């Protein structure tokens, strides 16, 4: 049994009742066809209850994989996937693809949730980018939030599409694994353009998105920050103050000096991006 299989089994053992645990162990040690059938039929035998997981141990094996809010059913499905033999890449991919091709929504959630621990990660790039385009909220969330696969494997274009879709739909971008590490100039410029479009339509821009422009400032974005300071919206002002305090772009420090109360709050550590995080998941 691999390390990640052992970790997930420990979580199952901590949550499942005796009957459920016996079913899981029996199915996991079956042939591929039986595992595939068990993956589909899991809701008939496994409850949708909250799991208990040792996050420290999990993150030592798979950094940044957030599964603490999963149900037991979802966990069991992912655990079953890890028992499909992977020694022959072509056969392995075929077996996983069969599940993708026939999956209903909760099965898709489990499949996309499993991407960080499936073998041959490069084989799932098309599937993963398809999930980003999905109109099914829970499917998008399975790839977008608490999932390290996009951070590790997406191209810059695919990454930016993921972040922008979250922003367009007012989803909580801070839940994207590696959000600030994969910030890039193209994304920062697109966010500025997006802000101009929203402002022209008299609509707001989520304040926390400005955290992504800090290392990619230009004169246009500096002017955007000036607009945020003047908006009389405390969240916008907080975002502008944080960017100005974090960037080395010429003019940002002097801009912040025009707002001594905000500057003092930043220096005292009273302002943070965490205050601007949007936590609700709304499905669109």
UniProtKB/TrEMBL annotation:
Superkingdom of the organism of origin: Bacteria
InterPro entries documented for this protein: EboA_dom
Protein name: EboA domain-containing protein
Species the sequence originates in: Flectobacillus rivi
């Amino acid at each position: 049994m691999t390390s990640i299989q052992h970790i997930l089994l420990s979580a199952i053992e901590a949550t499942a009742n005796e009957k459920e645990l016996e079913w899981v162990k029996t199915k996991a040690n079956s042939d591929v066809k039986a595992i595939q059938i068990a993956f589909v039929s899991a809701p008939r035998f496994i409850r949708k209850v909250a799991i208990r997981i040792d996050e420290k141990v999990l993150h030592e094996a798979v950094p940044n994989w957030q599964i603490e809010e999963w149900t037991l059913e979802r966990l069991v499905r992912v655990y079953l996937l890890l028992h499909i033999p992977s020694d022959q890449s072509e056969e392995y991919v075929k077996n996983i693809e069969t599940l993708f091709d026939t999956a209903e929504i909760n099965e898709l959630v489990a499949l996309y949730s499993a991407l960080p621990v499936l073998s041959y990660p490069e084989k799932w790039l098309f599937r993963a980018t398809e999930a980003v385009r999905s109109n099914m909220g829970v499917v998008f969330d399975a790839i977008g939030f608490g999932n390290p696969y996009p951070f590790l494997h997406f191209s810059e274009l695919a990454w930016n599409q993921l972040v922008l879709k979250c922003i367009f739909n007012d989803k909580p971008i801070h839940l994207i694994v590696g959000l600030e590490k994969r910030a890039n100039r193209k994304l920062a410029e697109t966010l500025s353009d997006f802000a101009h479009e929203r402002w022209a339509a008299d609509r707001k821009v989520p304040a926390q998105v400005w955290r992504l422009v800090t290392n990619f400032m230009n004169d246009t974005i500096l002017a955007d920050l000036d607009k945020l300071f003047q908006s009389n919206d405390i969240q916008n002002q907080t975002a502008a103050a944080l960017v100005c305090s974090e960037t080395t772009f010429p003019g940002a420090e002097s801009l912040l000096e025009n707002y001594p109360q905000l500057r003092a709050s930043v220096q005292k550590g009273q302002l943070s991006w965490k205050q601007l995080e949007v936590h609700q998941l709304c499905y669109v």
